[in-house]
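Lecture 7 notes: from sequence to structure.

We start with a single chain of 291 residues. Read the sequence below before looking at the structure.
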Amino acid sequence: MHSYLRAIGFGEVKDGSEIKDLIHDVFYEYDERNAAKEDKGRAFVEYSREFGPGMGITVCGSLDKEGFHQEYYFPYLRGSQVTTEEDVVIEKRGENESFCGVCEDMRVGVSLIFYLQNPAQYKRESILGRLLDERITTSFSGLSLDGKILFPVLKNEKMAEVNQEAEKKRSRLIAEARKGDEEAIESLTLEDIDMYTMVARRVQQEDVFSIVETYFMPYGMECDQYHILGEIKQVQKVKNEYTGEKVYQMELECNDMNFNICINTKDLIGEPEVGRRFKGSVWLQGYVNFP
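Now the structure, written as tokens:
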């Protein structure tokens, strides 16, 4: 059973028979179907069904003369906006026809690895040779099994503007440093030393989360799992239509990136409100917006 089903409101689904019934419903009552032709009269097909606003389950497999052969399924939350416009490299993962995407976003400083939500569309675009025709954007989202709500860091509008300018400057320096600019490398090194000194001094008398406003870093053994701290921009409590369980859907701003996350209300400590911060681990997913 997929452990992240809980995040979209299937926390009480416990055994294989319940999962089988759930997948049966997705297959016969799907909201969206995508397919990509393969050789020998076969096709790769994905069936998706929503069980709440923007969240649901996708079942993937192959279709031939004998019928549909399920390979795997996964829960999803669709991102409501474009998160990044950076180039994406997509690679197959494991033995089945599932894929991971990798992109280098200067705002984070590490390679972002995400689980691809629309594999059939990717395979179709790849077969047609249209992947490089136009610039492709990506909408990120995350499913979480544990999280906490933190109060915001006290700051005024002027401080927010200064921080925003500093982030833009750092992103520009990182881009120049990757091209081999020695001045940019030296500036980043000095900046990191100053930041380390400041944090080491302040952490003696302050809580670390009153100093660090936001972060995005790899977490655990899986390459597409991250630990995040981000400011809540929007929040809504929605109900899973199948189980009746309540989940929170939030739009976060994290390292100057905006994306959506979903978490079961039973797994969240604290009351989410706009302006507060979410701290927790997420399984990062991405929907590649092909032209």
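DSSP finds four helices and 14 strands in the chain. Keep this in mind for problem set 3.
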